[in-house]
Design brief:
Blueprint: H1 6-31, E1 37-41, E2 45-49, H2 56-64, E3 69-73, H3 80-84, E4 92-96, E5 107-111, E6 116-117, E7 121-128, E8 135-141, H4 143-155, E9 161-165, E10 168-171, E11 183-190, H5 192-204, H6 221-226
Antiparallel strand pairs: 1-2, 3-6, 3-9, 4-5, 7-8, 8-11, 9-10
């Protein structure tokens, strides 16, 4: 029986919070705000101060998104009735579709193994698909991720795969042809703003831990000048 030591747990939390602080910094910097203050407070808190911010809700949504991205093959052997009942075939797992997806309210079974994680991304940019005029996020894998994506797409031409963000399926398109250039496109009923926010989250990396807003204050210009 192996159990982590208290020193090991403390180090894991410290490493996760240091990484999370850096991810938060990258996401806020990408918004173009001026001179934000981002500091660790205690063991498990991060203080964020952003001057001149017009939309606190947008910032909270951006910072609260874990941005854990995965690509997994859809399990075509799963019976729809079993999936809706939460029963997955051996070797598979069930994920719900995201609220913004056209299939919202339903779920899909995907294979546990053989997929690709988003930690091998080198870039993510929002854009518009010229064929459908939809807002999308264009992503680029590093050399190793591109090779894995090429292999996955080559072996599964004509089969659907699920694009999973933070345990929810954005969409489940079909590999129409092998994708060998290391570039892919994510669609999922995005607005221009939500596509840009997702691109920022993916560029900055996934948060190692979930972050929850525990206190929020807005200070007016007059009060700030007085203090």
């Amino acid at each position: 029986v192996l159990t982590p030591t208290s020193d090991g747990l403390n180090q894991a939390v410290t490493d996760a919070m240091d990484s999370a602080t850096e991810v938060v910094r990258k996401r806020i910097d990408a918004l173009g705000t001026r001179e934000p203050t981002i500091i660790r407070q205690g063991d498990t808190r991060i203080v964020v101060q952003v001057p001149g911010l017009q939309d606190p809700e947008q910032l909270k949504a951006l910072l609260g998104q874990t941005a854990k991205l995965e690509f997994k093959m859809v399990d075509l052997t799963a019976l729809p009735t079993d999936v809706e009942a939460g029963i997955a075939p051996p070797g598979s797992q069930i994920f719900p579709y995201a609220d913004e997806s056209p299939q919202a309210g339903t779920s899909v079974a995907v294979r546990r193994l053989g997929g690709i994680r988003g930690d091998s991304l080198t870039n993510a940019q929002s854009g518009v698909d010229p064929q459908t005029n939809e807002n999308v996020v264009n992503i680029q894998f590093d050399q190793q991720g591109a090779a894995r994506f090429a292999q996955l797409s080559t072996q599964n031409v004509g089969r659907p795969f699920a694009i999973i963000l933070d345990e929810k399926v954005l969409s489940s398109p079909v590999f129409n042809e092998p994708i060998t250039g290391g570039a892919a496109q994510i669609s999922g009923s995005f607005t221009a703003d939500s596509a840009n926010e997702l691109a920022i989250s993916l560029r900055s990396g996934a948060l190692p831990v979930d972050l929850t807003v525990i206190e929020e204050r807005t200070v007016s210009a007059e009060l700030g000048q007085d203090s």
